[in-house]
Each structure stands twice: as C-alpha cells, then as structure tokens.
Amino acid sequence: MHEMSLAEGMIQLIEDQAESQHFSQVKKIFLEIGALSNVEVESLLFCFNAVALGTVAETAEVIVERTVGQGFCMDCSQSVTCDSLYQACPFCQSYKIQVTGGQDMRVKELEVA
Amino acid sequence: MCNSCGCSHGETRIDGQPAHSGLGDEQHHDHHPLHAHDAGVIEKQRDDLHFGKGPAHAHAPGLSQSRMVQIEQSILSKNDHYAEQNRASFASQQILALNLVSSPGSGKTTLLTETLNNIKDRINCAVIEGDQETANDAERIRTTGVQAVQINTGKGCHLDAHMVGHAMDSFIFNQQGLLFIENVGNLVCPAGFDLGEAHKVAILSVTEGEDKPLKYPDMFYAADLLLLNKIDLLPYLNFDVQACMDNAKKINPDIDIIQCSATSGEGMEEWYNWLETRRQAQIDTILEPLKHRLKILEACRDRRI
Fold first, then answer.
1. Measured between beta carbons, which residues in chain B are less than 8 angstroms from residue A74?
2. CATH fourth-level superfamily of B79-284
3. Which of residues 71-100 of B touch A (CB under 8 A)?
4. Distance between CA B8 and CA A1 in Å, rounded?
5. Is the alpha carbon torsion for A47, A49, A50, A54 positive or negative?
6. Which residues of B, range 207-246, sit inside 8 Å of A by Cβ?
7. Cα distance from B73 to chain A (closest Cα, Å)?
8. pLDDT digits 0-9 by tens, B277-291
9. Rounded to whole angstroms, how far apart are CA atoms B237 and B102?
10. pLDDT digit string, tens, across residues B100-152
11. pTM of the predicted model, to two decimals?
12. What is the ipTM, given to two decimal places?
C-alpha cells in the first residue's frame, strides 16, 4: 500500500512544477521505474488515478518506461544485469553483486498545456 | 482517510493528536488547485489574450501550447528532502538514529525495552513508536523511563521522514544520544522510505521462516544489521540459522548479523557494542574535518609576520 504514498509524491512533485513552470494541465507523464525499485507499477497507476482527481494531472496519461537492474560482481569484476536482488552472478555464481542501476523511480518529463 | 482525495495522511496522528502542518488536510490540500487555486489569476488570463503569456510562451501563430517539461526527479524526492533535514538535525546534535524494521511479532518492542534498560543510564535515549493504532508501545517504552512518542499512521503502512521530523520536536537530547525509530511492523513498505536514519536494523525472529530475507528482499537489502532474535527458542524449533544467514547474505553481502535473545540476554552485549561502534564512527565523521580545520588554524596562528 505504500504505492498510495508514492502516487501522492508524484502529485506533489507535479503540482510544485505546475506552480513554478506555469502550466494548468498535464497531458502525459513519463515515468522511469527500475526493475529493482520497491514499487508495484500496476498498483502505483491504480493509486495515481485515485489521487489525481481534481488536480492538474486528472486526465493525464501515464507512460512507464521500465529500466533493467544493473550490478557489478565484486568477485569476478563483471557488469551484470539483474531482475532481482537475490540473483547470482551469471558468470561466477557469486551473490556479491553491488547494484549500480535500476532502483530509480523517477518522473522524467511531462507534456503540459 | 482524507475525503477529498483518498490520501492516507488524513489519519496520521502523533501521540493521539492529528499531525499538523503538512500532514493534515488543510495544508495538504493547499497544493490541490481545485481547492486553492487563485481565481484572480485565472480571470486575468481569460481577459488577457496575449499569446506570449500562454503556457508555452509561444509567439508564432498556430504553434501548439503543449510543451514538454523536463523534471528528472525521484518520486520520493519530497520524502528524501525531509529525510536530509532530519539527518542534518541528527548530526548537529550528535544523535545516532536507527530505523528498526521487521514484521509484526518479531519482538521489536521487547528487544527495545531490554536494550533501553541496559544502556539508558550511560547515554540519552529516545524512541519513536510507529503503529497503525494504539499508544501501547510508547507506554511500554515510557515504563523504562525513556522518552517516547507514539505515531499512529491510521491507514498508513510505514513512517515517513516528515512524521519523524515532527516527532523530534518532543525530545530533549542535550547534544548527544541514540534515537530508536520503531517502524510499523511491515517488511515491505518501510524499505523505500528514508527517515534520515544512520542505519536500518532488520529484526527477524527464529519463529519466522529462514527464507524471509528471500521473500522480502528490499528490506534486507536496505538494512545494515540483521538481529536474529528469540534464539533462546531454537531448541524447540526447526529453524536453520545458517540457511537464514546465507539467505540474508545473498540479498546483502555486507549485512552484519547478530544472533540474540532479548529474553535470555544472549548476544545482547554484541548488539550494544555494534551500537557503540556506529555511534563513535558517526562522531568521528563529524570530528575529522574539524580536526583538519583546527590544524590549519593553528599553523596559521604560528606563522610569523
């Protein structure tokens, strides 16, 4: 259920921008959600629709770009892609993988009017 | 839950009182244009058909008023901003803040009361208790003589940095101490919300499954220490301690693990030593640049004209 808080975070962020960048309607929201981020996208979109009512983003279409998880194996010094936090290195089977990307949840840009 | 937009902050309470500024409906809805839009500005825009003042500042006829706004901000940026404020405030008062996370029933509050009874005479302590409802846990803490604030999250599933900032107003630390933040019992949601703490400490009891780190990876990834609690019960259970520790290390190879029991006292000294090491390390990080500055100033003073 923390997706509700995240959706509220999105609205706050968008409304701060609406004030500083002077727009009154958001047509599209481009999100970047990493594969290793702590969010369920379907749930986030559901919550967003609920909290967006009566805001500048009420009718906005949300476009989600999923980014892959990335890591660096501390044992064999290879860069690896990972779908989960408990994945072993595909090269040496070590679990000592330092996550280097794919944990972000970001609003990249907005199409506004 | 807030009637206007369904947000859960409407039910947040600190020590039974509605959380003020920013958490209540009033300020929350200041941000909603339908509630708080400046009607004068809209009217002005309606009367004034200056195309250069449109949202896109478009001067060319026919050019769409639609435009792209680059944001590149984390969805959690608001929380992270409050968390940084908390972190700065903790550092300025030499407070080591710990965010205790676990599933309900892992023995967090018992472990905490036992800890406080052992260390409260040597260092200032304070506790923020997070639960959906009741002030029971804060009352349990207060029986130890340690200052405590209860945050009730209502329908909320985690504490956020803003709530913690407000709770801090109730404490007196006298320039040093330990702050324990006992988060809502939940192994999912609290993982993503930075409260400004120095470390997240995950507590897992041996009455739970040894595969919990794999089932809830985000939390064990975010934690710096795993307290494997209730080990006095191991003789009565089929709990594979080594498998549990291996699972935690698979998620987070750097995680420290301490086996302990708040009831028998086993492993508790190791936990207090961990706290003391982290407390000193935090003060050293503040001290190092000051020592460096002092050296420069002394060298400067000794230089002759």
1. 253
2. P-loop containing nucleotide triphosphate hydrolases (3.40.50.300)
3. 71-79
4. 10
5. positive
6. 213-214, 217-218, 221
7. 5
8. 999 999 999 899 999
9. 20
10. 999 999 999 999 999 999 999 999 999 999 999 999 999 999 999 999 999 99
11. 0.81
12. 0.84
